[in-house]
Amino acid sequence: MFLMISINIHDGVAMPAPLDIDQLRTFAAIVDAGSFTRAAESVHKTQSAVSMQMRRLEERIGKPLFVKDGRSNRLTEDGEKLLVYARRMLRLNEETLAAFDENRLEGLIRIGTPDDYADRYLPEIIARFAKSNPNVELYIVCESSNDLGEKMARGELDIALVTHNPRLRQSEVVRTEPLYWVTSASHTAHETTPLPLAVGRRNCQWRQLACAALDSVDREYQILFTSWSSTVVASAVLAGLAVSLLPEAALRPGMRILSPADGFPPLAPAQIGIMRRPGVPASLMNAITQHISASLDNITPMPIAAKEEVDPGYQPLRSARLRPGHMMPGW
């Protein structure tokens, strides 16, 4: 492959040409969308235009960014390196433009989220949004998805991140991730009969899922800890007092994933949805929704223990998935 490197001449000194922000935006869109075709739709360009932008970006960098992997493309090592810098540059570009925007957003937006989502997702969402919209006040409520749905219905919140459950409430799915049985990596609560469980209250969707799954394999269990707080549930697991089920992004150091080989049935993936209140100014709603979606796209699982082998099915364009039996590194 023949690559060209562009340079500028300034005061008799050869200087590398600056990177093109639009090319970097398209590059990040390809990674987020998982393909050139879907990325073309998200950046409102033709697929040929997207391909041309990536050829020019590769010429500018002087390194191949993608490599063929069957019928799809995946990032090269240099592509992975560029992605880190590209996201930083895109965020800085957004912040810079926002700082000089006379029509920048102002006001209050009320956000609801369960505390297990807040623990993992809110830092990224708040950081991105606050930098771009320093004059918008964020009012944040942490309660269960059921309670948040009721608050949305009463008009007490403007937007909410909830566990998607179309039987109870309407929400737009913005993230899907595996749901795992977890135990302490240092204890054997998962071998106890009856099986001790730490779960949410009776109307918790995941509690109902856990009980139904264990009933389906005739596994005897006992609910020992009940709480809406993910911190309480995680503490019971880490202390070796109970087993629970958690979405991938909520796994913590010191936990181990349980599999059918351990006697635990597979679980349906967890879906995270967004609920929006009608009547919120479109500019404010679009801004926070875009930041939430972008932040969720950037979330990756905590790294697995170093002694574990790398999953041969890993694709750089996707978040690496943890596998049953993996242990999270200890504290």
Write a concise keyword list for the protein shown above.
37% helix; five-stranded mixed sheet; alpha/beta; three-stranded antiparallel sheet; globular; 331 residues; disordered N terminus; 2 domains
Task: Describe the fold and architecture.
This protein has a 5-stranded mixed sheet with strand order 6-5-7-14-8, sandwiched between helices. The model is unreliable at 1-7 and 303-331 (pLDDT under 50). The chain folds into 2 domains: 7-99, Arc Repressor Mutant, subunit A; 104-301 and 323-331, D-Maltodextrin-Binding Protein, domain 2. It contains 9 helices and 14 strands. It has helices spanning 21-33, 36-42, 47-61, 77-99, 115-132, 145-153, 205-216, 230-238, 282-298; strands at 7-10, 13-16, 66-69, 72-75, 107-113, 136-142, 159-163, 172-177, 179-184, 195-199, 221-226, 244-247, 255-258, 270-276. It is 37% helix and 22% strand. The protein has 331 residues and is of the alpha/beta class.
List the helices and strands and how they pair.
Layout: E1 7-10, E2 13-16, H1 21-33, H2 36-42, H3 47-61, E3 66-69, E4 72-75, H4 77-99, E5 107-113, H5 115-132, E6 136-142, H6 145-153, E7 159-163, E8 172-177, E9 179-184, E10 195-199, H7 205-216, E11 221-226, H8 230-238, E12 244-247, E13 255-258, E14 270-276, H9 282-298
Parallel strand pairs: 5-6, 5-7, 10-11
Antiparallel strand pairs: 1-2, 3-4, 7-14, 8-14, 9-12, 9-13
Helix pairs in contact: 1-2, 1-3, 1-4, 2-3, 5-9
